[in-house]
Amino acid sequence: MNTLSTKASRVATCWSFCDGMANLELLLQKCDSLIHIKKLQARLVTLGRFQSYPSITIKLLELCALPPVANLPYATTLFHYLQTPSTRHWNAVVRGLAQSLQPIQAISWYAAISRSPQHVDALTCSFALKACARALASSEAMQIHAQVVRFGFGGDVLLQTTLLDVYAKVGNLGFAQKVFDEMPKRDLACWNALVAGLAQGSRPSEALALFWRMNEDEGLKPNEVTVLGALSACSQLGALSGGERVHGFIVDAKLDTHVIVCNAVVDMYAKCGSVDRAYRVFESMNCGKNLITWNTMIMAFAIHGDCEKALELFQKMGRNGVRADAVSYLAVLCACNHGGLVDYGVKLFNSMAGGGMVPNVKHYGTVVDLLGRAGRLQEAYEIVKSMPMFPDVVLWQTLLGASKTYGNVEMAEMASRKLVELGSEGCGDFVLLSNVYAAHKRWDDVGRVREAMKRRDVKKVPGFGYIEVEGVIHKFLNGDQSHVNSCEIYSKLDEIKFRIKDYGYVAKTNHVLHDIGEEEKENALGYHCEKLAVAFGLISTSEGTPIQVIKNLRICDDCHVVMKLVSKVYNREIIVRDRARFHRFQDGFCSCRDYW
Ligand code: ZN
Ligand code: ZN
């Protein structure tokens, strides 16, 4: 307060002594609020000098448009007072808009300036491109890119880095790669942008390859931003040995002094199936733990179905004086969900409001799932009805899934209607509803749903899975025959089927609509990606080695049964990370206790 009032009185004193233009430069330096700006503007206008001091009006505009003042409406009004604005005047406004909550406006202003190209310089393009990155405006970025070349700024290294960053952020990775390849000189910033872009753009293998190329071939030292991209890539791939290598690099490069990096390491180990390693890193963090660290570890236990440890840690966090936030509660609710702790979960959910926390749609979704799985459909529905916000697609899908499990036709129909109203075109929604009808032998309704799917041209999400063997990632699609060892994999699958039959295995292929289900055709059921990956794991790793598979969709009933039996018959630990959680199959049992 003292500093502020001293500053204000200093400015006021200056004003009282300001009779001409002499003190203007000095005053500009002290300007830090809209009132000061307005006073200065008034003085300029009174002196009849507003148009004749461009250096001062540029500075005024910059003060107005950028933080801490950041009053864009006033900046644009001020701009319109100018009779002949220069490029720097335009740049001040475009820059401010690009950083504002409505970056799209910066692009409109850029379009207005570029109609008179003499007003555009490399900085204008750079600010407009940054606005494109924030507004995720891919086609606008491409248009500005074309103009960058036309205006002759194509060789500007800073602009090239900005272009690369924009393309990576808007997900146009083809163009990002192209800009990268064409750059005559690359600094660290551009490697970071591409590694992060590839990791976020679901191209994790390429992100990881680029990370090592940068480090080993180019001799550049990745910084914390780059390692975050590499760790995210490992997490997506479930690449444990790749992740260990990146972790080793982080320790050697002393990047583990950044808490954000350590948090990502904890998350990576958890997502790569090693919750123990995640906990070891969590315990040994010398850089201190923040709220995100605790939340990450609680969520790690939750997705591994280690409900008790998640709850224990949640309490320990409180004892350590760290105040839980909405994310912590979500993590604990997930733990209750995966561990089947229904009553405790509901109690926790109800206690949120008491702790001054407002549950968001994800908390509602988790508690509805929790009740739905336990067959308490009516209670789940009551919670949906009590929601202060609009229930989203995921929530109705959750209720639909529970209705299918418990054969509640009315609830399934109601949830499906809501999904159609919300415009959901998901294949899984239709399949769930048709399965509910099929279970009740309502064949006309089954036919009706099938027709609706055809009419709407419902697209299936293709299933795929990853397995890492000796540091190499192998990707399998459902029914994939493209792997070099395809023949051996398929004959191994035949052998698996033959051997598990002795343990009472019967393929769950009797579902009427499996031919149009999330996991497709009846005959393809036996060749789901996780089965192919596990068969490959069995033939390419030594006896006793655990086999870990990462799958993009939820594991189906049939694969779940097969994995349990394979773990017993072949005496192998099998870990499958599906869309929602980890399943650890050992000696014929799964860590999810068949509750997923
Ligand atoms: Zn399956
Ligand atoms: Zn399971």
CA radius of gyration is 30 Å
* Number of strand elements: 6
- Give the helix proportion (percent range): 55-70%
Order of neighbouring strands in the sheet with most strands: 2-1-3-4-5-6
How many helical stretches? 30
The major beta sheet can be summarized as: 6 strands, mixed
Q: Unreliable runs, pLDDT <50, ≥5 residues?
A: 1-19, 510-522
Distance between the termini: 55 Å
**Average pLDDT, to the nearest integer?**
86
Oligomer: single chain
Look at the helices and sheets and give the structural class.
mainly alpha
Overall 3D geometry?
globular
- Range of strand content: under 5%
Q: How is this structure best described in words?
A:
By secondary structure, the chain is mainly alpha-helical. Among the domains are: 186-288, Tetratricopeptide repeat domain (Serine Threonine Protein Phosphatase 5, Tetratricopeptide repeat, Alpha Horseshoe); 465-590, no CATH class. It has 30 helices and six strands. Strands 2-1-3-4-5-6 form a six-stranded mixed sheet, covered by helices on one side. Strand 3 (547-551), helix 30 and strand 4 form a beta-alpha-beta unit. Helix 18 (291-303) packs antiparallel against helix 19 (307-319) and helix 19 (307-319) packs antiparallel against helix 20 (326-339). The longest helix is centred in the N-terminal third of the chain and has 16 residues, at 2-17. It is globular, with a radius of gyration of 30 Å. It binds zinc ion (2 copies).
